[in-house]
Design a protein that fits this description.
heterodimer; A: alpha/beta; TIM Barrel; two-stranded antiparallel sheet; B: Purple Acid Phosphatase, chain A, domain 2; four-stranded mixed sheet; binds iron/sulfur cluster; binds fe (ii) ion
Chain lengths: 317, 293
């Protein structure tokens, strides 16, 4: 999965070793503003080094959601007052029903797709633009591009990814989208303005003149762990830490993630058994999120930056 | 999204000991009955448009003129806007800007997250804070978070952003109908009236139920036309009848005042051209795509 939220630890989401004890702090769901779908499971056409759930063409630990499964959750979401719908994976467009799923969603509300844009032939970009035109609501395409050059991006995302992503982005722009380009910051914060300028130049070359660029803070995973430091296993949210802390800053107070097999507390903890809150959305919405993972510690430090209007610079708080 | 949280309601309705600013029909009734309402969204110190709108709405027979908050930002001489509203005894719902100025907060709580947006927001906030008299700041601290009134058979709840958060953005293309209907039902109202986004729009939610965003009186709605807008509402046969009213005002005079005050060229360009040049990153894709920048 592309880095939607900032900063969690690699391998952490492969499951907690033990079920949360009575001591694990929890966060109640304040309002279900964001509904996320793990729409392509863990299946991706790329094999990025920094992918926090190791998505790959052969990672079938979570399978595609069917249009019917999504429809069911959409139906439930109306009663629960959901405000925005997000689609992630893996690569969402690996799901053959993706366009139909988006059509269903856009009848109800705005949709955002987190994509690597490498599976974006002209036909698809145009079809998506028609879906957006026919809807009252915005369809946002959030494209992950991790560098301003082939060398920089492909070192992270694999050979050929840069070229295909740039082509896909150009198709989206040509079809009328204003894609939100997201990039994980792999440079010192002081250099961000220079990189933003380089991104704007690159995008202007694709005919994109109202560029929307979002820089995500570096994740303490993979190479980042070597470059900086990973969080210690012992670093967990404690009850003491929550004194005077606004739980509303955590994504799990406003979101749930629907997968092909159950509903998780948030899009970060896809594979954590403790964060699996139920079979149905209604059930999962009625339970608080357990904050026992070390990823929760990272959320505590950086707040939720997954939504479209979150921090655009990746500045540390 | 730390900034957005700052717009949460303060636990108590007032931040000072002064009584709430509830002039006109609100002075004598908690939920007054009115016939025709003119709702002004963010004024952003555009005192020239405000004066024209007051005369226009009065001429059209409105028996309640209402401001939905955000008196300051963007424009020149914030005290002039305050004077006009107080003189005309116009009730004001507390906007994030008024809340910040009244309490002397570090920023305007607009909910921007982009550095360029924040850069310009800071310039206008610092200017507005420095140029608002202590008396007006205290007065802003007395604005209620919401006002409720009856428009014929319809109950209207007027807020700045949303009933749950003063600075929640409710854009046309990112706010589902079921979500709005939930807000309206929870509030026990028929019509929800708000602003904060700066672009006017409305949507029917069910029989007799509506959401109306009055847009802004201080800045054109990113449509390439310098006119600004307010909303006029009445009840006809149990249904809401409303229209958005364009306001033409002395744009060049305002632009000159802004230049004399040293306000950014970007703001002046927006006033003149009708295209937004700042605060762009909070716009949803569709709204952004309709603009030039
Ligand atoms: S594009 Fe890369 S980061 Fe995103 S899901 Fe695929 S492998 Fe993971
Ligand atoms: S990782 Fe933990 S704290 Fe962060 S959103 Fe998920 S459950 Fe909440
Ligand atoms: Fe506002």
């Amino acid at each position: 999965m592309d880095p939607p939220p900032g900063g969690w630890k690699a391998g952490d989401s492969t499951g907690s070793k033990s079920a949360p004890g009575p001591d694990v702090p929890t966060a109640p769901l304040e309002a279900l503003d964001q509904l996320w779908f793990q729409v392509s499971g863990t299946v991706c056409n790329l094999r990025c080094r920094h992918c926090f759930i190791s998505c790959a063409p052969d990672n079938h630990s979570f399978w595609f959601m069917t249009r019917e499964q999504v429809r069911q959750a959409l139906e439930d979401s109306v009663e629960l007052g959901v405000k925005e719908y997000y689609f992630t994976g893996g690569e969402p467009f690996m799901n053959r029903e993706m366009e139909a799923i988006l059509a269903d969603t856009l009848e109800l509300g705005p949709a955002t797709v987190l994509t690597n844009a490498t599976l974006m032939p002209r036909r698809r970009a145009r079809a998506l633009a028609r879906l957006a035109e026919d809807s009252l609501y915005t369809l946002e395409m959030r494209v992950s591009l991790d560098g301003i050059t082939r060398e920089m991006n492909d070192a992270i995302r694999g050979d050929g990814a840069f070229e295909r992503c740039v082509e896909g982005t150009a198709e989206l722009v040509d079809a009328g989208f204003l894609p939100i380009i997201t990039c994980m910051r792999s440079w010192p914060e002081a250099e961000t303005e220079g990189y933003l300028e380089a991104f704007r130049t690159l995008l202007a070359g694709l005919g994109y003149h109202q560029p929307r660029i979002k820089i995500l803070p570096p994740l303490l995973i993979g190479e980042e762990v070597k470059r900086t430091r990973g969080y210690e296993d012992t670093e967990r949210i404690t009850h003491e830490m929550l004194h005077g802390f606004d739980l509303g800053n955590l994504l799990c107070s406003r979101a749930r993630l629907v997968t092909a097999r159950g509903v998780q507390a948030c899009p970060i903890l896809l594979e954590s058994p403790a964060a699996r809150l139920g079979d149905t959305l209604a059930e999962a919405a009625s339970k608080p999120a357990p904050l026992g993972e070390s990823a929760c510690f990272t959320c505590y430090l950086s707040g939720s930056i997954c939504s479209n209007t979150g921090s655009t610079t990746g500045a540390d708080r | 999204m730390i900034a957005a949280r700052e717009g949460d309601r303060a636990p108590s309705e007032t931040t000072s000991a002064t009584p709430l600013w509830r002039p006109g029909p609100f002075a004598t009734s908690e939920v007054p009955e009115v016939k025709k309402v003119a709702a002004f969204g963010g004024i952003y110190s555009n005192h020239r448009a405000l004066e024209v709108a007051i005369a226009d709405a009065t001429g059209r027979g409105a028996d309640l003129l209402l401001c939905l908050g955000d008196l300051g930002a963007f424009g020149p001489h914030p005290d002039r806007t305050a004077e006009i509203l107080r003189q005309a005894e116009i009730p004001v719902v507390r906007g994030n800007y008024d809340d910040s100025i009244a309490r002397g907060l570090d920023d305007c709580q607009c909910g921007y997250t982009d550095p360029k947006d924040n850069h310009y927001a800071r310039i206008s906030y610092e200017y507005t804070l420095a140029n608002t008299s202590p008396e007006h700041r205290a007065w802003m601290g007395s604005f209620p978070h919401e006002l409720r009134f009856r428009l014929g058979s319809l109950e209207v709840l007027a807020v700045h952003g949303s009933p749950r958060r003063m600075n929640e953005f409710l854009w046309e293309t990112t706010t589902p109908t079921h979500f709005l209907d939930g807000l309206v039902r929870e509030a026990g109202a028929d019509v929800l009236l708000g602003t904060h986004t700066g672009i006017h729009w409305s949507r029917p939610l069910g029989p007799g139920r509506w959401y109306v965003n009055a847009g802004a009186l201080g800045r054109p709605p990113n449509d390439g036309n310098p006119e600004v807008w307010y909303a006029m509402l009445e009840e006809v046969d149990g249904e809401l009848a409303h229209e958005f009213v364009p306001v033409s005002y002395a744009v060049e005079e305002l632009a000159n005042e802004m230049a004399d005050e040293g306000l950014p060229e970007e703001f002046i360009e927006t006033i003149r051209t009708g295209w937004w040049t700042t605060c762009l990153e909070v716009l949803p894709g569709k709204e952004r795509g309709r603009g030039r920048h």
